[in-house]
Amino acid sequence: MILSHLSLLDFRNYRTAEVGFAAGSNVVVGRNGQGKTNLVEAVGYLATLGSHRVSSDQALVRHGADAAIVRARLEHEGREVTAELQLNRVGANRAQLNRSPVRPREIARYLTTVLFAPEDLAIVRGEPGGRRRFLDELLIQRTPRLAGVITDYERVLRQRNTLLKTARSSGAVERSLSTLEVWDERMIALGTEIVLARHRLVRALEPELVAAYEGIAGAGQPVRLGESLSVLGADPDADAAASPFAEEPNPAEVREAYGRAIAERRRAELDRGVSLVGPHRDDLVLELNELPARSTASHGESWSYALALRLAAAEVLRRESNGGDPIVILDDVFAELDERRRRRLATAIEGYEQVLITAAVEGDVPESLLGHRVRIEAGAVLDEASEGVEESS
């Protein structure tokens, strides 16, 4: 899949922008604060319906505007698709494919991206929520229908938590139990699907992670992915781990473990007014040298681990996609790497159909990746290939 053209209207600091991209490597160069990250953020948003920098869409709409528009022309094997998202300050966002209205998540069927940014260090060093987001964003790109499953699960979770809080505050625990059991059934059904999908994804990622980490950091430091599952007794509040499923779990096995775990934590849930079992309480376990990477990896090792996770994700998507390679996006990454890691990363990504790179200093980017260049200066996007300029503010 190739992104040949990107149009922005009232997105972030851009009033308008028209940017052409080429197959292979594209480098967006500009001083900090000029808007280069905003360009690749828009591309990533089209693919995932989320930003790697903020949790709310409001920040993506230019100040004073009611809506932002991101439009991309995509090409694959001679076919061309125009995908468009309208991000509304008030009301639901809208989407189009070739000018025909569709649900926003339909765009993910035509565009996949893997974006690495400095914020990804939090996947390795941060809280479990960041690792869950990493898995779920990749799940949705791998199987777009899971976006609906995850959304439904989050809705049921909110409803169930409201009921638990109401039961705790009113003291009407017995009256709430029958209603709570209805929500239990729905949460178990949806949660089981998420647990199984994450498990399959982790198993697919692990061999790719091993290869990617060795490619970036060199041999001699084994890495491993695991799962900490609340349905098997893991409790992040008590720092209690749990053994994974002994073999490939089936849905009945997960549902049974889920129901048993809820029954065991029922009193604690009613006392605290929150749901303590389910995918929202799970974690992705990252090991380096048979130790938790979160607490033992150095700064350089953490960078290598985060890069390797993204490269592993790209390989999984590439292997399973009928639409060509995902677009690999490296946002201000090379400035943080030493020369050895720069060369190795360049080698790892040079075979992808299209790579978008942002850099404040062109010299930070390995020469082998200095292909098509887009410069950003003084609030303007300058496409070297066309010498076209679009003003931004």
From TrEMBL:
The keyword Transmembrane helix is assigned to this record: no
Keywords: ATP-binding, Cytoplasm, DNA damage, DNA repair, DNA replication, DNA-binding, Nucleotide-binding, SOS response
GO BP annotations listed: DNA replication; DNA synthesis involved in DNA repair; double-strand break repair; SOS response
A GO molecular-function annotation: ATP binding
GO cellular component, one term: cytoplasm
RecF/RecN/SMC N-terminal domain segment(s): 3-361
Subcellular location(s) of the protein: Cytoplasm
Binding positions for ATP per the UniProt entry: G30, R31, N32, G33, Q34, G35, K36, T37
InterPro entries per the UniProt record, alphabetical: DNA-binding_RecF, DNA-binding_RecF_CS, P-loop_NTPase, RecF/RecN/SMC_N, RecF_2
Family statement: Belongs to the RecF family.
NCBIfam families assigned: recf
Stated role: The RecF protein is involved in DNA metabolism; it is required for DNA replication and normal SOS inducibility. RecF binds preferentially to single-stranded, linear DNA. It also seems to bind ATP.
Protein name: DNA replication and repair protein RecF
